[in-house]
Amino acid sequence: MSDTVKYILDETQIPKHWYNLVADLPTPPPPVLHPGTMQPVGPADLEPLFPMSLILQEVSTEREIEIPSPVRDIYRQWRPSPLYRARRLEKALDTPAKIYYKYEGVSPAGSHKPNTAIAQAFYNKEAGVKRISTETGAGQWGSSLALSGAFFGLEIEVFMVRVSYNQKPYRRALMESYGARCIASPSNETASGRAILEKRPDHPGSLGIAISEAVEVAAQRDDTKYALGSVLNHVLLHQTVIGQEAMLQMDMAGDAPDVVIACTGGGSNFAGISFPYIGQTLRGGRKTRILAVEPAACPSITKGKYAYDFGDTAHLTPLTKMHTLGSTFTPPGFHAGGLRYHGMAPLVSHCAELGLIEARSYHQLACFEAGVLFGRSEGILPAPEANHAVRGAIDEALRCKAEGKAETILFNLSGHGHFDMQSYTDYFAGKLTDLQYEDNELAMALAGLPSVPE
């Protein structure tokens, strides 16, 4: 049908393997370093935090890693996710561009995060782990790991960034409904949390702080491991089911994207849709522009430094080379809580350094404006994080209009905004502003980057 709106794959077409971009990169990514020795970390260094199966995926150079059957069986609950042609949005913009979006909000938790949460819970359960500690910003990752804990019978403890904890009570309620425990971070339950609260009792929190608390809890108990919802290689790997499905669906549409767009905070949904396309280009296939869209109030790719840094504020993690604003940087409390992370995934950062991707940043008012237009055109109200991708897609479509080009745009709509309605209420009431970070705070955070010998 020439006017098809959605493209649906059969359950049998759920990918059987995750795709590992490392296998196709022209140069390997820099190694992860131990902060004490400045030498590359080995599996033993990571074993207190992760099961060995995930550690092996973290360092793998194989192009394909098989998805276990129990994971694929649970994926069937919402995968394959639909691909939509945004025909009403195209009409509203009066653009010659064709706009498609891959919709990950159909998962039980409402975002792309269960793609890795289910996998991580499976491997932890297989390793005999009883309890997982984690952090969450907007709550999408915490909700997803809580869901996975319910499926696999694991105890889940979530440190939620305090500003999001206060902004998004229904995300907390969803986590608790799935059986998880949710704690506002920084908290009095950890040494790292108490140290921060002593200096600033009203601290809004950050993902870097919440990671410190979750890592500290995991390191203290033998039956507990840590899980991360973005940034690490194995997390990005698990998300590549998105892009693999999108490729099949674009084939169904008889089309192929000229540009692929996603929002970026830690990098997981961006990698999920873009890595299969980057790999296709690197293997000599069709060349696709890849655009990462990040918040102007936390712009790690566009304003950060490409350097070795800690992944957390208390410096409990190894050193990874990434675009970073500095591990002590606290972003202002804008509503896209899932994008309030000081660093970008090392693999995404490496792609940026190799010139394989582009990046741009937007303030939140422009993103909410785009999300409202999208919701009124397509009927789906995006999460504040996903609004950044919507803004990027709309601007690309308007560029096509100005240039008279009929390009094909594909973006990842990483989640719905049904648990983020307070942010929309604030937007319509005129209470949202374009928050700015303090230049001197950024300068101080970057000045404090660890010294790593070349």
Strand order of the largest sheet: 1-4-5-15-10-11-14
Question: Could you please say which CATH topology of the largest domain applies here?
Answer: Rossmann fold
Overall morphology: globular
Which structural category do the helix and sheet elements fall into?
A: alpha/beta
What is Rg?
20 Å
CATH class bucket of the largest domain: Alpha Beta
Mean pLDDT: 95
Strand content: 15-25%
Enzyme class: lyase
GO molecular function: L-serine hydro-lyase (adding indole, L-tryptophan-forming) activity; pyridoxal phosphate binding; tryptophan synthase activity
Pfam families: PALP
Function: The beta subunit is responsible for the synthesis of L-tryptophan from indole and L-serine.
What does this structure look like?
This protein has 454 residues and is an alpha/beta fold. The protein has two domains: 6-14 and 78-110 and 234-447, Rossmann fold (3-Layer(aba) Sandwich); 57-66 and 113-233, Rossmann fold (3-Layer(aba) Sandwich). The protein is 41% helix and 16% strand. It contains 19 helices and 15 strands. The strands form four sheets. The protein has a seven-stranded mixed beta sheet with strand order 1-4-5-15-10-11-14, sandwiched between helices. A four-stranded parallel beta sheet has the order 8-7-6-9, with helices on both faces. Strand 10 (259-263), helix 13 and strand 11 form a beta-alpha-beta unit. Helix 11 (233-239) crosses helix 13 (268-282). The chain is globular, with a radius of gyration of 20 Å. The N and C termini lie far apart (57 Å). The mean pLDDT is 95. Tetramer of two alpha and two beta chains. Keywords: Amino-acid biosynthesis, Aromatic amino acid biosynthesis, Lyase, Pyridoxal phosphate, Tryptophan biosynthesis. It comes from Paludibaculum fermentans.
